[in-house]
Amino acid sequence: MSGSVLIVGTTPDYVAKLFERYSKSLLFLTDRRFQEDPLLKKLPPSSLIFTSLERSEEASRKTHEFLRTPPLTPDGIACFDCDSLLLASRLALELGLRFPTWEAIARCRSKFETKKTWTGHGVASPLASTASSLKETLSFFKSHGENMVLKPVAGSGSELLFYCKDETDVRKAVAVLEQELPKRGGNPLFRPFPNPAGGSPIDPCSCWVAEEFISGPEFSCDFVLKDEEIFFIRETGKIKATDKPFGSVLAYTFPSRYPAGFQKRSLKEVLKKATNSLGFDWGYFMVDYILHQGTPILIEMTPRPGGDSIPELVSAATGLDTLALYLDFVQGRFKEPKDTALLPESFASLNFFAPMEGKIQVLDGEKVRVSPHVRKLFFKKQTGDRVILPPKDYDNRLLGYCIIEAKPGLDLVEETRRLQQMLELRIEENA
Question: Quick check: 25 and 5 in contact, CB under 8 A?
């Protein structure tokens, strides 16, 4: 199977989606706990390598054994999950494939080390510190102004993310972090990982990050660093949900609506400096940033494509398949996408969150699906599934999302509320 791509990690639903789209060119190294998953039963054994992703020695051995008989030669290695990036880097080195170094990845895995590195190299980013107690957290809060954000050292999305404007908020947030972080030891995102500064590994279940709050509109983008140049793949705006836990994304907008006078050239310069300072000289990246008084303030960066509803949003708007572009990139076949001629915020993906915990008895989106401005509707849940809400679980609450074509000036917060009310949804709390 010459010309294939080895994909390290990712969940059965993503494996199934990637196989369906690009089946002839992919091999999947996935965790053995998914071996009996019905989604993976549909794939031929010749496409799957099962192992323990937590044990890199075993994962390496299983991969080499699989590729040896019959001889298979991947010409690219890819990863869609932050928790598998370090393993992907190791395997790429062993197989002679290009991938970011583990040292650079480790700096990205720690949300504190990322900001520390950026600050030391003159890249605008929130001031931050690690903390493992209420005392340490309050100390940072008192010395860095009135507004602060608390978040896990690792993790994704809005999981255990808190905005604190006074000491009462700090105490409440720390109490939740102290209670919830130790429960996430079995979550791959919260496994200990190497400390890029040396010493003992970083345990995301025993500490958190305190950082200054930055005001302004928030955005995210995918970009490629190649031959010392930055190439934008997509840029999306974020609309936050004001009635959900802090940081929850209600909608993504495409293309981004930047403030008047903002020059994308300045963002390219920042991204080049930011990637180089972390130790990257090549890669495909996703970055979150806030425009504060016209200046890009970088929040987080990781060497993988953006996920959630973003690939489907970009595809619906432009026809560009960002996942295929990434797979081409890791094989050395990158081609810069053409600039879009769309007006800002012509398209949006709207998230539907479950309003309560319990078992889903009814979930029907036909009324939403047939709306004239709705391009696609995707459900992540189905009848019979259980819903768990934050702070116990932040991903589980997402019922699905829809991609819409948006008219100028459309209130997306109100539109999300209106469309969600059109869903036929019944959840029984005690079922």
Answer: yes
What is the per-residue pLDDT across 13-23, written as a single tens digit (0 to 9) for each? 889 989 998 87
Share of the chain above pLDDT 70, in %: 99
In terms of Cα–Cα distance, which of 226, 289, 229 is closest to 256? Answer: 289
CA dihedral 351, 356, 358, 362 (to 10 degrees): -60
Question: Per-residue pLDDT tens for 42-72?
Answer: 899 889 999 999 899 999 999 999 998 778 8
- Which has the closest alpha carbon to 307: 3, 8, 14? 14
> Which two structure tokens, joined as six digits, stand for 337?
């996408």
- Neighbour-count burial of 89, counting CB atoms closer than 10 A to its CB (0-12 exposed, 13-18 middle, 19+ buried): buried
Query: What are the structural domain ranges in the chain?
Result: 5-99, 127-212, 215-340, 346-431
- The yes or no reply on domain 215-340 and CATH 3.30.470.20 is yes
- Assigned token pair, 324: 């295929």
Find out whether 256 and 219 touch, Cβ atoms under 8 Å.
yes
Give tens-digit pLDDT for 81-90.
999 999 999 9
CATH 3.30.1490.20 fits 127-212, yes or no: yes
Structure tokens at 349: 């993906």
Query: Do the Cβ atoms of 177 and 183 come closer than 8 Å?
Result: no
Q: How far apart (Å, rounded) are the C-alpha atoms in residues 208 and 211?
A: 10
Is residue 356 within 8 Å of residue 389, measured between CB atoms? yes
CATH of 346-431, one of 3.40.50.620, 3.30.565.10, 3.40.50.300, 3.90.1170.50: 3.90.1170.50
CATH class of 5-99: alpha beta
Count the neighbouring beta carbons within 10 Å of the beta carbon of residue 422: 16
